[in-house]
Amino acid sequence: MASIRGIARTAGRHATAPLRPTATTMMSTISHNFGAARQSSSQSQPPSSSSSSAAPAPTDPVFEDLEFDSSFLTPLLPEDVKMLSPLERSRQRTERLPGSRYQYHPPKFDRGPLHPIQSPESSDPTARDFVPGPYHLNRLRQTYHTTIASDLMTLAYTHTIPGTEKIPTPQRLRSWDGSSPYHKNRPLRQPRGDPKLPLLEKPITFRNIPEIRSVTLAAFVPKAAREPEHLVVARMVTQAITGKVATITTVKHNVGQWGIIKGQKAGVKVTLYGNEAYDFLDKCIHIVFPRIKDWPGVNGSTGDSSGNLAFGLTSENTALFPEVEANYSMYPAKQIPGYRVFVETTAKSDRHARLLLGSFGLPFYGRLRD
Predict the structure, then answer these.
(1) What is the number of other CB atoms lying within 10 angstroms of the CB of residue 251?
(2) Is the pLDDT score of 195 beyond 70?
(3) What is the mean pLDDT of residues 129-143?
(4) What does the mean pLDDT of the chain come to?
(5) So what's the pLDDT on residue 317?
(6) Per-residue confidence at 240, pLDDT binned at 50, 70, 90?
């Protein structure tokens, strides 16, 4: 290609080509000028011998642009050109390369701790489970880590005299009588009646300090079966006070007096985790509950014996949230729903869960159930 380019450049000096020559015209012009150049060079040289007349002189100005080396050879780099490593080139690059080809993608599957390719930590922005944030420090959560967590170990401390025998935990499951060979190495059976055994309460140490795991809000709107706009308002209010889009729940059983059928959409539900759960409890404890007239607190008998407590909010209580109160005219007053709030904690008993929520400022009344 370089040789043809040089011949075309030489031919352009002696002949005038059209503005846009075709491939056939260009090749014929090149061959004509090349033949003329060979004839002129042969006439200028003396006829000393047949070999010298056949080979043109390489110093002839007509062939100064021709390249006698093959175009398949790798050209030598100048001395002032330095080969940079990929790391140095990436540091000197001002623009980002396309992510589809050059960006690192963590593996989709975890192939065990001994695999040479490991997924990055969740705090790494390249991780697949990376979530940016938090963008603010939750006051209730910060108080828990700085004050409440250490106080809970003091309040729940149980002193035992050194040398005291440890009371063994009674067996709550039934064993097999061994009347069949299939009873061997089988797990223990549930008690009679198949009850739900509560979790065993363990002393609070620095390893198992109770904390909030999640907060679930559920609203039942039976009128939404006939009037769907009630369900729209319920989702709007739920998203306003929680900041998350609620999912629609369906009816599990037929209720004749309410005129609802199994499978109809008649409720909303949303679950909050992390800072969102602490933000919601913070609003309830410091804004909503103090404004409820003659509110006694949360019933002390609530709980599922496994560290999960619940309380209710009426439609009037829901209207006290600042997000709803600021735009109260946007929601029909008779369509604002009430909620059942379930607070899931890492505690193993209701007593420890009440101790945690009580330290946040949530009052309890009535008989306290262990």
Answers:
(1) 19
(2) yes
(3) 86
(4) 81
(5) 94
(6) very high
Q: Which two tokens stand for residue 49?
A: 């011998």
* End-to-end C-alpha distance for the chain, whole angstroms: 92
Domain with CATH 3.30.1440.10 in the chain: 212-365
Length of the chain counted residue by residue: 370
Q: What is the pLDDT of residues 103-128, one digit of tens each?
A: 778 888 888 989 988 988 888 888 88
Query: Cβ distance 120 to 126 under 8 Å?
Result: yes
Whole-prediction pTM:
0.63
- Among residues 236, 195, 213, which one has the least CA distance to residue 356? 213
pLDDT above 50 for 53: no
Looking at this protein, which amino acid is placed at residue 296?
Answer: P
What is the pLDDT at residue 146? Answer: 92
Pick the CATH number of 212-365 from 2.40.37.10, 2.60.40.1080, 3.30.1440.10, 3.40.640.10: 3.30.1440.10
Q: Which residue has the tokens 């050109």?
A: 81
The amino acid that residue 241 corresponds to is: I
Of the pLDDT bands very low, low, confident and very high (cuts 50, 70, 90), residue 8 is very low
Percentage, residues of the chain above pLDDT 90? 36
| Site of tokens 């309460």 | 201
CA-nearest of 166, 163, 172 to 192 is: 172
Residue 273, beta-bridge partner list: 214
Phi-psi region of 323 (alpha: psi -120 to 50; beta: other; left: phi over 0): alpha
